[in-house]
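Blinded run. Sample ID left blank on purpose so nobody reads anything into the name before looking at the predicted structure. Input follows.
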Amino acid sequence: MNAIEVIEGAVSVLDRSNVDTDQIIPKQFLKRVERTGFGEFLFYDWAKEPGWDLPPNPILATGRNFGSGSSREHAPWALEDYGFQAVVAPSFADIFYSNCTKIGLLPVPLAEAEVRAVMEAGRASIDLATQRVSWDGGEATFEIDPETKRRLLEGLDDIGVTLQQVGAIDRYESERERSGPVTTSLA
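Blinded prediction complete.
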């Protein structure tokens, strides 16, 4: 996963609340486990609506409770594969939020008025290190767990975090080999 420092650029607007993961990527497209190739099916049913236009800009701004519903990992995969690097919304479903951070898609919670201002500005800059979002005419800060922030800044997914511990893992395995198998007494 790529490290995140600053995400800036045009904003795509999806002015809808309570968008669930089945709307983000419908179930009929969940037949594989690769993380790529889902972007073309993003918002599949909505994309058929007259006038639908959601360009693949770096930032998606949307309504509250984004990513609700089932806990499918494919929803963040589809958003990332489509081209989004960050999603700005008033609130996110917990599992969706976590799934985003595990692949390097930055979920940014802001107050509804701030999200609306980002939508209207059409461009924004998100600085993860300072936890600031800025747009023409405004600026806001956002909260993020310090460990999640560190992982995103360093570009570490779960495997990357584990690989940071390879020395300790090797020492443990070496010690286990020297001390022999673990035995238990059932007396």
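Unblinding after everyone has recorded impressions. The CA atoms of residues 97 and 107 lie 6 Å apart.
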